[in-house]
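Record format v2
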Amino acid sequence: MSQRNFSYHAQINRNERPLQEIMFEHKDKTSISSLGEFKLIDHLTKPFTITKNETILGIGDDAAIIESKGKHQVISTDMLIENIHFDIMYSPLVHIGYKAISSNISDICAMNAKPNQILVSIALSSKYTLQAVEELYVGMRAACEKYDVQLIGGDTSSSVTGLAISVTAIGYANKKAIVKRSGAKEGDLICVSGDLGGAYMGLQILEREKQVYLESKEMQPDLEGKDYIVGRQLRPEARKDIVDLLEKLNVIPNSMIDISDGLSSELFHLCKQSKIGVKIYEDKIPIDQLTYDTALEFNLSPTTCAMNGGEDYELLFTIPQSDYDKIKNSMDVTIIGYCTAPHEGKELITKSGNVVPLEAQGWENFKEDNP
Amino acid sequence: MSQRNFSYHAQINRNERPLQEIMFEHKDKTSISSLGEFKLIDHLTKPFTITKNETILGIGDDAAIIESKGKHQVISTDMLIENIHFDIMYSPLVHIGYKAISSNISDICAMNAKPNQILVSIALSSKYTLQAVEELYVGMRAACEKYDVQLIGGDTSSSVTGLAISVTAIGYANKKAIVKRSGAKEGDLICVSGDLGGAYMGLQILEREKQVYLESKEMQPDLEGKDYIVGRQLRPEARKDIVDLLEKLNVIPNSMIDISDGLSSELFHLCKQSKIGVKIYEDKIPIDQLTYDTALEFNLSPTTCAMNGGEDYELLFTIPQSDYDKIKNSMDVTIIGYCTAPHEGKELITKSGNVVPLEAQGWENFKEDNP
């Protein structure tokens, strides 16, 4: 349905090889301990060159210094943990680095703000070589360049097991442009950017190929034709372009949130914080053909994957009906329903016209039965 | 030498029991998975009540919103990892929470700025019960109250092993008051707050008692008379009071850094970034009597412990000689030497009058031979 707007391994100069070649590769090179913490930070952060007017002082002191220029600042933080948020068996580190940044930038975009600066802390176990960490930072740098943000601070330390990445993202917006989760109004049109469920189906493919590989190490992973959804999982983009588009169209949504845990879960957040109900039309939910076909291949309902699969990092927002004409020709925005009174509940109108209650089945990592 | 200005377990209402009772305690109560991520965040962050004029929106949206009020903002981030930065066998979670905040506030103080807001992300493995995480947040709240900072955002997720805490701290200062590492001048007096080496000796005591306990589980840890240094390790304070004192005395240091990795390592940072040399007098280095006696008990040189033991979170700063009269009567600030030309190197004048080169032996976690 929507345009495929990136190929997951086409945009990073230093990592042009197809995923098949690198996903199960193990390297054993320079140990981190040969550098020590301070030299490691210097080494990793030197290639980051974007500068911002607002940044008075970046990396290298006890704290960074930011000059405020009359705008409101938005700030968000997130942590990615190995074997919870990513599996290095099939996630190239360059993509993990990219995703760590883009998923945080997504939170800034979800406030209708422009990202500007980031701080990154990493903790590494001794299995990570210097080259591995460099790959991670190549991905981070690519994301910083893509979204035009400056790395201004951070910290590296060791960990006993695995890799942990914490990112704090900072953005700015005019006071009147900032959009919260709590502003949706009865009658608002509910819009989503891009298409949904792809990241989830990409994960299913990667998990399947991992199992094949674990059973027979001679098998190479078969990702033929699945580039788009595998890329949605491994190297998602933040929809900064939608924030730019809204500005250009002179549309300020009444409410907005990014879809990290799944459409259904995010709708629950909007309903709770805006005190509204929602009606969503199944036939309006944007699903890419490859996502659709792959869901059927796995005997899954494409709609369920789109409603409950997380990590698409698309934007979900509501606009007054009076803004319909401004947005109706935007190819990459789909109107999927509208806001109702809170007592009307949260409903999905199926393709066959049945009305079923929405269920919130986000990626609640703490549920023990989750992967 | 300096006054002991806190007792490590006296300041947190919900945890008044002596460390001996709680250090090896294991609890098994409510599992985190029974709540899910969003309810956990709500539950943990509800008791945080401090509000700030600058905070337009705190926890509960994609990002927090801060209004800038003409001051410069300083921002710093840090990650604490279980079994690297703390050992839950002897560190009560309430203190780990406190230290996670105070050690980050220390970075803000080291810029001569006033801390204002923090964001906290945690990742937890399933061994942590809800009650355990609550303890952690009781400590964080105590630190937020002590330093008058507001928790404005964060994230919780699960981890495969252990606990990871990432804190981003934000502070403000007038443009002219901000102090960097790079401003020290030849002839500047070198000052430190408080006393040094205590946190390191506290760690030695805790490690010794852990070994005793591991050899015989019936032995209770013997921390008799070691409260001060054990507290320095488990529940360090940020020297916000020194930032207030400097303001009151109308002194703006030329350079400043906090002592997290050890005096020697921090002096190396100042020398490198300010392009100076230093002369430090061994007999001026402030060492508490208990630190001194405990070092001898462990057959360690008290000076080496003070120079290279980390985690004291005292402030190291340099002032022009013309400010000597303003600071000379401050009980909790010691002048330990002065800045020289860069070619004069980094020297320690021993008690016997010998001149030895300083060595940088910070807590470089990546060195494999470190604990």
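Chain A has eleven helices and 13 strands.
Residues 181-357 of chain A form a domain with the Phosphoribosyl-aminoimidazole Synthetase; Chain A, domain 2 fold (CATH 3.90.650.10).
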